[in-house]
Write a structure and sequence with these properties.
By secondary structure, this protein is of the alpha/beta class. The protein has 2 domains: 4-179, 3-Layer(aba) Sandwich (Rossmann fold); 200-317, CBS-domain, CATH 3.10.580. The protein contains 15 helices and 13 strands. Helix 1 (4-28) packs across helix 7 (157-176).
Length: 321
């Protein structure tokens, strides 16, 4: 029979053990970490990350995180490397090899290849006197922390520390390079994250789709434009600049004698607008806050010309929420 208290106790012990090890890792970081970052920044090639078994899974994640944050990287499986994939490494690259023991046999060819062709080797292991760290140009030593299994046989704490170390490298490099949300969006055009980083200019309607009329337009014509364009609003311009907007609320407020009025007499002046380079998430927040369904997109320059219109449905269709 399952003992809930025992299960929760085990889970908390494991998490506590790994959390304590991460604290040790943070305290142990030294000049070797700085030299690793400097080596990667100075590299004219890519970062090659390799590891076997559980370390291999962490290596794959490390390469993916580096690549998505502005540091070109890819994973090389050490067994495949011995059968031709060593050719994926070249002078100018930086090779990061992960191995808790530092003695993983399958890594021998990768290590030897970097030494033969003078490729910078960064070693990550827990034993300073291991083959990997003795051969490495820069040695990143993991603290001697116990595995969370209690028996010291299941890679748990060691892989968690290696994972965190990879994240620390990626973020240090990202911040040094001033990697921006726009850069991140370029590498993540799909999925929820890509949607959240979409720009207004990517989603807006432009050209003939934009509902615009001059300030002197009779309301009989303004109503036709509202109906034809399908946004439920129309922008009012004067000398090419957006000076007002006519919404459903404006129509209701001016119902008496509406058809005898001009757009300038009915419009609400100074409509809220947004820049084309703003994030679509920002536009959605404005629409939700003001309880409106459309925003005109306006040139931020001195001319302040209307460039397009963004409807709330455009954001929702793109997955911005």
């Amino acid at each position: 029979m399952v003992d809930p208290a025992s299960l929760l106790s085990t889970a908390r012990r494991v998490i506590g053990t790994e959390a304590a090890a991460l604290g040790q890792l943070a305290a142990a970081l030294d000049d070797s970490f700085v030299r690793t970052v400097e080596a990667i920044l100075a590299s004219k090639g890519r970062v090659i990350v390799s590891g076997m078994g559980k370390s291999g899974h962490i290596a794959r994640k490390m390469a993916a995180t580096l690549s998505s944050t502005g540091t070109p990287a890819h994973f090389v499986h050490p067994a495949e490397a011995s059968h031709g994939d060593l050719g994926m490494m070249r002078p100018g690259d930086v090779v990061v090899v992960l191995s808790n023991s530092g003695e993983t046999p399958e890594l021998a060819d990768v290590i030897a290849y970097t030494r033969r062709f003078k490729i910078t080797l960064i070693g990550v292991a827990s034993r300073p006197d291991s083959t990997l760290l003795r051969q490495a140009d820069v040695a990143l030593v993991l603290p001697n922390a116990e595995e969370a299994c209690g028996e010291g046989i299941v890679p748990t704490t060691s892989t968690t520390m290696t994972l965190a170390l990879g994240d620390a490298l990626a973020i240090a490099l990202m911040e040094h390079r001033r990697f921006s949300p726009d850069d991140f969006r370029d590498f993540h055009p799909g999925g929820k994250l890509g949607a959240r980083l979409s720009k207004v200019g990517d989603l807006m309607h432009g050209g003939d789709e934009v509902p615009l009329i001059p300030v002197s337009t009779p309301m009989t014509e303004a109503l036709l434009v509202i109906s034809k364009k399908g946004f439920g609003v129309v922008g009012v311009t004067e000398d090419g600049k957006l000076v007002g907007i006519i919404t459903d609320g404006d129509l209701r407020r001016h119902m008496d004698g509406l058809l005898g009025r001009t757009a300038g007499a009915v419009m609400t002046r100074g409509p809220k607008t947004i820049r084309p380079e703003a994030l679509a998430a920002e536009a959605l927040a404005i629409m939700n806050e003001r309880k409106i369904t459309s925003l005109f997109v306006q040139d931020p320059g001195p001319e302040a010309r209307p460039l397009g219109i963004l409807h709330i449905h455009d954001c929702l269709r793109a997955g911005v929420a």
